[in-house]
Amino acid sequence: MPEFLELLPPGEALKVLLGALPHRKPPVEGLDIGAAVDRVIAQDIHSPDALPPFDRSTVDGYAVRAADTFGASETLPAYLRQVGEVPMGAKPEFDLLPGETGLIHTGGMLPAGADAVLMLENSQVARPGEIEVLRSVAQNENVLHAGEDVAVGELILAGGTRLRPAEIGGLSALGITRVDVACKPRVGILSSGDEVVPPDVRPQYGQIRDVNSYSLAALVTRRGGMPDMRGIIPDQAAAFETHLRKALQECDLVVMTAGSSASTRDLTAQTIQQMGAPGVLVHGVNVKPGKPTILGVCDGKPVIGLPGNPVSAMVIAGLFVSPVIDHLLGLQSNRPEATVSARLSINLASQAGREDFVPVRLVQTDQGMVADPIFYKSNLIFSLARADGLVHIPADATGLPVNASVDVRLI
Questions:
Q1: What residue ranges are annotated as transmembrane (predicted)?
Q2: Distance in angstroms (rounded) separating the CA atoms of residues 117 and 119
Q3: Buried b or exposed e, range 147-170, using 16+ CB within 10 angstroms
């Protein structure tokens, strides 16, 4: 089939791919929250309780009526009668009347009549049963009100949200100990090449160990998928067809590496085209590294053909494989990717009209964070292993100057 007739920008290519995928709800499994970190919840969760469930103090000090402290200072203190102490984990056994106070600890329940808490360091004992107020406090100062964090029935997590440690803690605070999450999509990984051998085999002359299957499996795992490494395919059309057909039957997404260069040995595109409609959607992306990328959908299942060079494969996987896994998980939240602001250590050249992703090493200096580009060849995986992130050069730029401010996408 014709190759590279139209090179799409990576953002446009991704829209084409995602737009061709069916909108299906992912299968669901129930998990205890202790095992649900980084999983994607399958449905909306509403709060069964208010959080906090009662008015409580945020400091150690004295529960007070704010009006009783107005005008108090170190030179002109106010005096309040201490009528009790709030027990931790229990309801106060006293109410506050004008001119009264009670000792309270952080997290303690505010007694009826109190509307603020005086910090302990802004008070001192004047005589037994009486305290000096050395600073006035405003109404609601140092107080959390019932439902201030979450109200009863409030939507706390929308379906499609990835659970971070904060969300896990919030669920436990509400007594929600089990959640329904999207099942991890199975991602078939096929590596091809007559010269490729498994990592545990000593390569002979002209052979190389399989790098991409393992690095891609790690990326899939980190993104929330289940990698299924399906071995090394010989450069034969029948082998490509047999392995891809079986992978499409058993997996939710198939990723193929190598076999996508613009050469007579390119079997990936023609095999995808035979596996189901609509077939190949994109053959060639206007990006460096990774131009010979293939994006396809076969009867509703995505297939991505990556360049064989390890650096190119990983950069392109970040641009296309990761978002497709998000789609299969039903991920809805649009939290930005982690980035670090830095300035370039040198000039970076680029070809106008093409998007470049340049590996950089981050170096902390007295003047701030510096992004030091790593000049690489795309078949050298440790070029990427030595990098902390990628700098994106947009298509409308011919490069970036030294000291330019850049956002480094962490890898």
A1: none
A2: 6
A3: bebbeeeeebbebbbbbeeebbeb
What domains can be seen in the chain, in order of their start residue? 10-27+184-329 (3.40.980.10), 34-51+148-182 (3.90.105.10), 56-144 (2.170.190.11), 339-410 (2.40.340.10)
Element counts in the chain: helices (H) and strands (E): 8, 28
C-alpha span between 9 and 102 (Å, rounded): 66
Q: What is the pLDDT of residues 237-261, one digit of tens each?
A: 899 999 999 999 999 999 999 754 4
CA 67 to chain centre: 47
Task: Encode 53-86: b = buried (16+ Cβ within 10 Å), e = exposed.
Answer: eebbbebbbbbbbbebbeebeeeebbebebbbbb
Q: How far is CA 373 from CA 335, 354, 405, 406, in A?
A: 26, 18, 13, 12
**Beta strand 116-119 with 100-104: parallel, antiparallel or unpaired?**
unpaired
Query: What pairing do the DSSP bridges indicate for beta strands 45-46 and 186-192?
Result: unpaired
How confident is the model over 192-225, as pLDDT tens digits?
888 889 889 998 998 889 999 999 999 999 999 9
51 forms beta bridges with 150
Cβ atoms of 252 and 186 closer than 8 Å: yes
